[in-house]
Amino acid sequence: MSTTVTTELPCWDLSGLYAGFDSPEYAADFRALSRAIEQLQRLLDDNAVRRLAAPPTADAATLAETAGKIIGQLNAAALLEDKLGAFTHALLTTNSYDPAAARETSRLEVLGSERSKLSIRVQGWLGSLSQPQLDALCGRAELQAHEFYFRDAARQSHFLMSEELENLAADLCLDAGTAWGKLQGTVTSQLKVPFARNGKTELLPITVVHNFCYDPDADLRRRGYEAEIKGWQSIRTTVAACLNGVKGTAITLARRRGRASVLDASLDNNKISRPTLDAMLSAIRESFPSFRKYLRAKAVKLGYPQGQKLAWYDLFASLGKADAHFSWSEARDFIVEKFHRFSTEMGDYAAQAFDERWIDAAPRDGKRGGAYCMPVMSLNESLILANFDGSFEQLSTLAHELGHGFHNHCQTGLEPLRRGAPATLAETASIFCETLVADAALQSATADQRLMILEAQLANATQVCLDISSRFLFESRVMAARAESELSADQLCQLMTEAQAETYGDGIDASTYHPYMWLWKPHYYAHDHNFYNFPYAFGHLFSLGLFAIFRREGAAFVPRYGELLRATGQDYAAPLAARFGLDITQPEFWRGSLQIVAEMIDRYEAL
């Protein structure tokens, strides 16, 4: 480990996608997607594929032929939309000032809306089939691979409005929920705040200032937090309007589709049941005292006066006297070597992602904060956005996102309708890889390094248990209040700090709570993807359960794990977990995973 971070951090190499928006290849694929959508519409029109008042009268062979053609065209359109969307999203999220990326994103959203309308027609048609017709369709040899898609689409069709209203909703959402989400992304990524350091004051991107929370300099962490809060205050009215628009859209659509709540829709989308969610959340609530004990121990290790509570801006402060900064090449070698310990395939995948510049690592003006991984199915690649600062925490974030990428890698060769994962299972591979890297590092670490690594693990576990709990409480209460009226920025801040008080409790100095967590977290700003908080807790604890199995089984676990990742788009969470003998509907499973965290806290306290 070095004491400085390499300044030459990589940006994406997108040449495998397109040379630019003006390239012939981009134009050709855009036209091809438009034609594919038109062809799919003709197919649906010619075969009366839409929600029907009674089951269709066509024979089984005709229904199967129609379904086969639909599947083929849906998959083909999805590949094109995925490739075009990856290119536009990659450019827009790394430079929100780019007018061409904004324009092409908008053009593609229009096509995506049209494709979505046709997918809803297919869903309605599948829901119109009688049970014997659906069973016969799924039993056809040429269609069996898509059985889960057929059955899940038929089930979900019961929560559709009329075709006319669904089409109207798709059109309006481009100018409602989607537009509000884009505005939040734009104003937050372009925000700059004045910051004094090294004898001068400069305007820094808010993402850079936020990353000071990982810095070893305690004064810099505090001042970064204070500057960040002032920065968010300057745009809070605008972003409050965005949140009201997004959540209002979600509430209206859920009500009109006959959903009991937006949360019920989210549970369906995440392929878990309410008993599973309740079991997990109740186990997490039981563990609050353990997490608060960790926060009090951290305050002591940071040298706080006796009895003084940890400040919010020290949540991510690193510990240990060992150098905590990695150059980019050191981060690459560290992760690749640890992944190789699990399997050659995983290690080779990580090396390829680093070496072929699938990762955009440098924080900069106009680039969105945080991190994400985006599959490019047609290239069998994944693009990873990071804001790397050389800290062990950011190295863990890289391992997390590469876990998502490896998950995508395990699904190579599957058709788009069989790929992917609900957010709950999507977080499993990412957190498994974080745990893998940290666990391997602990085995050869010095005492100071063990403290640093345990700190990073526990800081992350605290985020996905305590902080996720606060976000879940916050979003639940926002949904309830938004159903009655719009909320002001002050109300949103109050709901946020109340939720933090209920979860962090006496582990954090209440005067330093972060009232603007609602403003900068992009997870709140997708009208069709709500409650993107509990999936992180699910993924973290589920992956710990799997990691415990890996410790017992060793190499025998590896192929089973790959099979699980390959199948996450083709089943519900509970049956997939049952393959490993896990019952996720009961609190006992979640308590077992949380006990692993409690043992880590005890080791941490003892260092």
Please give the structural blueprint.
Layout (H helix, E strand, L loop, with lengths): L23 H23 L13 H35 L4 H30 L2 H9 L7 H10 L6 H12 L2 H13 L2 E6 L2 E6 H5 L7 H17 L1 H21 L5 H8 L4 H13 L1 H14 L26 H15 L1 H12 L3 E2 L11 E5 L4 E5 L6 H19 L12 H21 L3 H36 L6 H16 L12 H4 L13 H20 L3 H10 L6 H6 L8 H20 L1
Parallel strand pairs: 3-5
Antiparallel strand pairs: 1-2, 4-5
Describe the model.
The protein is mainly α and 607 residues long. The chain has helices at residues 24-46, 60-94, 99-128, 131-139, 147-156, 163-174, 177-189, 206-210, 218-234, 236-256, 262-269, 274-286, 288-301, 328-342, 344-355, 392-410, 423-443, 447-482, 489-504, 517-520, 534-553, 557-566, 573-578, 587-606, and strands spanning 192-197, 200-205, 359-360, 372-376, 381-385. The strands form two sheets. A three-stranded mixed beta sheet has the order 3-5-4, with helices on both faces. A two-stranded antiparallel sheet has the order 1-2. 48% of the residues are buried.
